[in-house]
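INTERNAL AUDIT FORM
Audit reference: QA-55
Scope: verify that the stored structure record matches its stored sequence.
Auditor: D.O.
Record contents follow.
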Amino acid sequence: VNLGNIDADVSMSWNNTLIDYATSNGSTGNEAIYCSVASGKTLTINVTGGDAPTYNNAGAGTVTVVSSFDHIITGLELNTEVTYVTAGTTTELFHVENATVSDGDGKYKTTYSHGGGANVDILIHHVDYKPDISNIIGITLPSAEATVKVQMFEDENYYNP
């Protein structure tokens, strides 16, 4: 896609699937986007779906590609607590105290919007269900929307009169 000369700060949306284009930015001539951004100006490409584009910027300005993808967990029980942390740490990236949004299958879901590529642990907790059995440890969030269905098992040892 030839965007030509860009002489002002510009934002655009991008929702395209790419096949056989360069996998990194540069000047091979096979990048998905060609542009010439003027010095001191910025082209912001907001990826709303599809693949993040590579670009060849012939100008002295800046090109920024912003990607956001949804990671959805379904199969949760009502009021399940879900926390995403950086893998192997306690650094919290996202937290839902009570999952209350229906997943359409009689259970509940959470949605975490992210930039893709982060290695995370997903901690899933509900007092009436076995602790830690539904946790998802050490996954890399894909650079695309993804849905993971979990199974939760009642904790036969938990009793709250």
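Auditor finding: record pair retrieved intact. The longest strand covers residues 42-50.
Action required: none
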